[in-house]
Design a protein that fits this description.
Elements: E1 3-4, H1 12-25, E2 30-34, H2 35-43, E3 57-73, E4 88-90, H3 97-108, E5 117-119, H4 123-131, E6 137-142, H5 147-155, E7 158-160, H6 166-174, E8 178-183, E9 195-207, H7 212-222, H8 225-233, H9 256-264
Parallel strand pairs: 1-2, 4-5, 4-6
Antiparallel strand pairs: 2-9, 3-6, 3-7, 3-9, 8-9
Pfam families: NMT1_3 (PF16868)
Protein name: TRAP transporter solute receptor, TAXI family
InterPro entries: TRAP_TAXI
Amino acid sequence: MRSAGAGFDGGGFERSVGNVNAINGGAMEAGFSQSDVAYWAQTGTGWWEGQPAVEKLRLIANLYPESIHLVARKDAGVASVADLKGKRVSLDEPGSGTLVDAKIILEAYDLSEKDITPEYLKPDQAADRMRDGAMDAFFFVGGYPAGAIAELASQHDVTLVPIAGPEADKLRETYSFFAADTVPAGTYEGQDADASTLSVGAQLVTSADQPEELIYGITKALYNENTQKLFAAGHAKGKQITLDNATLGAGIPFHPGAERFYKEAGKLE
């Protein structure tokens, strides 16, 4: 079976797009994608607007969360998303998935790019600007602890701004690829409390054209005892590849083979 992205780097945005296109074109049977990319591709919306929808894209498993970090200078007076009004905020570079997610989040809190001084920088560039006092906050999507943020937090007083409350609950209802998430206290230097946020999932996706028995077997193998032990003993993200996380923030329809396994395991009704 040809698949891509067997490492634990979550695939990232560009690789997600490449994998989805390869699955759609039949060059790959399965691959990794972020849940937001998979959702936009399957529905032909968001970042994928104007391109043909990949209607046959199906989910095998949600593997682990890629947490949405909203990082602010501690002295910037940003305690919530709404406090970003009038601030200098980096939304990530043009064409990135983070930029689309950031705009959706701003909108949920009645803000737009007109209400902030937006910049469009990669997270490491935004962190450099923050060190120089020229940036109040920036968005980053990735598993924690994120190297660029850990480095920044060790040198400067920063805070993780919660993405929570009724606005975040409504976002999860509207965009099924978002899941509730928590960055635990102590993940970054100076972080005294848990930070509630949203996440997009690192997902294993396939095509509806793949046989049910094949995908059922793959899903079952992912969650057998031996595989689970291997995941838990490996990378930190491996510990999060659990049956409990498998069906969270799905976004797109499950492949019938995966769906059958989760129903048997009592994870789907």
